[in-house]
Write a structure and sequence with these properties.
The structure is a single chain. The protein contains 2 helices and 8 strands. It has one domain. By secondary structure, the chain is of the alpha+beta class. The termini are far apart. It has a 4-stranded antiparallel beta sheet with strand order 1-2-3-6.
């Protein structure tokens, strides 16, 4: 049984930037309910949180196992693999992991930026695409400024 609940799936530019002919990849938001690993007494985790090494800290729940926010939201791609030597529930290299409170308070614009940055990896962002009269095109990336 999985500790995750799928919240949504959207397509993003595979390399973090949209341009003519770019490939797209499916990104999935996987929510971790508040009761997973909760430190609330009597909820079954008295011996500790088995997910503490790869998820944000657990949250207290009420008597109905509810809390104001999920424990976490983990963002993965369609190529993400689940299961490591540490835990069968851990995703290998998730794009981004937020606490439930961070997810509830982030704007879509900021979330989009953070996911695209993660997809882009160490490549600089595309700042312009030049489309020539013959249909060929050239991508210009931002120069690194460290």
């Amino acid at each position: 049984m999985s500790i995750y609940a799928t919240l949504w799936k959207l397509k993003f530019p595979k390399e973090g930037d949209e341009y003519l002919g770019c490939n797209w990849i499916k990104v999935t938001a996987q929510g971790v309910p508040a009761h997973i690993g909760t430190p609330t007494p009597g909820k079954g985790y008295e011996d500790g949180d088995p997910y503490a090494e790869f998820l944000p800290p657990p949250v207290e729940t009420d008597e109905n196992w509810d809390a104001p926010f999920m424990r976490a939201v983990v963002f993965i791609t369609e190529y993400s693999k689940k299961g490591t030597t540490r835990s069968g529930q851990e995703y290998v290299n998730p794009l981004l992991v937020l606490t439930g409170e961070e997810y509830a308070n982030i704007t879509f614009e900021e979330l989009h930026t953070r996911l695209c940055d993660a997809l882009r990896g160490n490549r600089n962002p595309v700042v312009i695409e030049i489309i020539n009269p013959d249909g060929t095109h050239k991508i210009i990336r931002d120069k690194k400024t460290d």
